[in-house]
Amino acid sequence: MDELRRSERGERAFARYVVGRERLVFTTRRHVATVIEPLATSVAAFVIVVWLMWEMEPVVGDGILVLSLVWLVALGRFWYRAAEWWFSWFGSTDRRLLLTTGLVTHKVAMMPLEKVTDMSYTRSALGQVLGYGRFVMESAGQEQALRTINFIPHPDETYRLLCATIFGRTWSDAEDTAAAAPAEPPAEPLPPSFPPAGRGPDATGPDAWTQVVGFVDPVRVHGDPWDGSHSAG
Questions:
Q1: pLDDT tens profile 112-132
Q2: How many CA within 13 A on the CB side of residue 130?
Q3: Cα–Cα separations (whole angstroms), residue 141 to 129, 136, 162
Q4: Helices (H), 15-139
Q5: Contacts with 153 (C-beta within 8 Å, 6 or more apart), sequence order
Q6: Helix (H) / strand (E) containing 100
C-alpha cells in the first residue's frame, strides 16, 4: 500500500485557505471507492438497456430512445461523481482539519484542532478489503461542520498522523502554558499550632496553656483587677 503523502495538487487546492503561519501536515483525495456505486449503477443500466433492446427489438419502436436516455443519465451521474471526487480534498494543517467538496457549488468544511476532544475510527469489511476508513470527530460545544469523514485512504497511517497532530499539539500547548506561567512565591510558614502539641491543661511552667482572662474596664475598677479583691464603682 502506498504511503500517505502530501500531494502537490492538494497543496495548491488548500493554498487559498491556509492563513498566517499555518503549516500543511497532509493532503489527500478521498478513496476512489466513493465512485464505485455510480459506476456500478451505470454499468447495470447499460446491461439492462442492451438486454431490452436485444429482446424487444421488433416492437420497441420509439422506446429505444427512452432506454438510451436512461443509460445516458446513469453514465452522466457517474462522470459527475468522478469529477467531484477528483476535485475534492481532505487535509490537515497544524491548527485545522479541512475538507473541500463540490464541483458546481464549492464547499469548504473546517474544524479547529483545539475543538476536537475525541476521535473514533472504524473500517467496514469492504473498507478493510479496499483500504479506506471512516473517522468521526467529537468536539467541544455545538456540533461542527466537519464531524464525519468517510472514504479516507491509508486509514491506519492517517489515524496515527491525526492523533499526533491533534492530541500531540494539545499536550505541547499544555507544556508551553505551564512553562510560561510565572512561578508562585513560596508559601509563608504557618504559625505554630495553638495549643502546642503535647501540652495539657494540667501542665505548669512554660508548658502551661495560656489562660484567657475576660476584659475588665480599668476605668470602673478600683484597685488591682488581677488580685481578685477589687470592687466596681
A1: 888 888 888 899 999 999 999
A2: 18
A3: 36, 15, 21
A4: 36-55, 57-60, 63-86, 125-130
A5: 4, 28, 29, 30, 31, 131, 132
A6: strand 96-101
pLDDT value for 128: 92
* pLDDT above 70: percentage of residues in the chain: 65
pLDDT in tens, 43-63: 999 998 888 878 776 555 667
Q: Return d(Cα 202, Cα 64) in angstroms, integer.
A: 118
The set of cell numbers assigned to 70 is 436512461
Contact 121, 155 (CB under 8 A): yes
Residue 91's Cβ-count burial label (10 Å; 0-12, 13-18, 19+) is buried
List, in sequence order, the alpha helices (H) in the chain: 8-14, 36-55, 57-60, 63-86, 125-130, 155-180
Cα distance between the two ends of the chain: 106
Task: From 213, 209, 205, select the one nearest 197 (Cα to Cα).
Answer: 209
Cα–Cα distance for residue pair 71/88, rounded to 1 Å:
26
The answer to whether the peptide bond before residue 195 is cis (omega within 30 degrees of 0) is yes
Q: Is 154 left (phi over 0), alpha (psi -120 to 50) or beta?
A: left
Q: CA neighbours within 13 Å on the CB side: how many for 163?
A: 9
Cα-Cα-Cα-Cα dihedral of 226, 227, 228, 231, to 10°? Answer: -80
Give CA–CA dist 79/87, Å, rounded: 12
